[in-house]
Amino acid sequence: MSVDVDKPAEPPAAPPPAQPEPIKAIPVRHYGRWVAALVVIGLLALLVKAFAAGKVNWGAIPDYMFNPDILKGLRNTLWITLLAMVIGIVLGVILAVMRQSKNPVTSTVAWFYIWFFRGTPVYVQLFLWFNLGLVFQYIDIMPIYKDEWSDFMTPFLCALLGLGLNEAAYMAEICRAGLNAVDEGQTEAAHALGMSHGKTLRRIVVPQAMRVIVPPTGNEVINMLKTSSLVIAVQYYDLLQAAQNVGRDSGVVVEMLILAAAWYLIATTVLSIGQFYLERYYARGSSRQLPPTPFQRLKAKLAGPNRAGGAA
Fold first, then answer.
1. Please, what is the angle between helix 253-282 and helix 68-99, to 10°?
2. Which of 14, 107, 136, 259 is the most exposed place for a label (fewest CB within 10 A)?
3. What residues form DSSP beta bridges with 139?
4. Residues β-bridged to residue 148
């Protein structure tokens, strides 16, 4: 015998919630930006008009762009920049370690070196190296080399010492700041594990300090490239000297100076790109997600509409 049990009636289904209207965002109008853009465009147009109306032979610039003398001066500029930075970086690291030494003699020598080379202009230092023959008439390294100072101190060597030794004083302070940025607990932990002071610097401190050292070092490389134009004072054949010689011989002096400026801009642009990727490399441990590079942003913009269309 079966008994029917009445089931309670199911409540009626609730109507679906009303969809909110899409928000129509109205961007804020920045009238100041438009005014500033118009002012900048106007000033730029006036500047272009002034240069176009000037008595400048613009056709001479591309004609002499790859002139053999200009390219030789450019190579010498890049070469002296590279060698001077190598001397500056190596000697700067040594001076930074000496400056932090507990030995009073070592730290005092490093402090005096930095004080002298940072306190005198590099232009003056170039002249001092060039005229040290008044003090040292001969350079005598008994079993190796002996010659008169005027023959020994060539324009290349004078430029190299003047730029490299001056740069070492600035790199010493940059390296010292990077080393001080590393927490002292890292050094104490390394010493507790039995690592020597030198090994602690190489394996623990310096790799972490590079994140602080690299950005100002990149700026110093770019600055060295431009500062190398001062070596014209000691008769070293660089880009500026080449531009002046070509301009004097061909009668287009101002045009060759503009050409030299263009080559400096090209070189500094390449160095700036290298600095960007080097900073990005050493920033891997400090940021969970690195910002996209310009090429990655461009690729994302180009691929954005295609992805959106495929998803639709």
1. 40
2. 14
3. 147
4. 138
Which value, to the nearest 10 degrees, does the dihedral of the CA atoms of residues 247, 248, 252, 253 take?
70
pTM as predicted = 0.77
Q: Mind listing the pLDDT tens digit for each residue in 142-186?
A: 677 777 777 778 889 999 999 999 999 999 999 888 888 887 787
Tens of pLDDT, residue by residue over 54-104, are: 788 888 888 999 999 999 999 999 999 999 999 999 999 899 888 888 888
Q: 108: which 2 tokens?
A: 């005092």
Distance CA 42, CA 34 (A): 12
Q: Which two tokens stand for residue 15?
A: 């109507």
Cβ atoms of 179 and 142 closer than 8 Å:
no
Residue 88's CB is within 10 A of a number of other CB atoms, namely 25
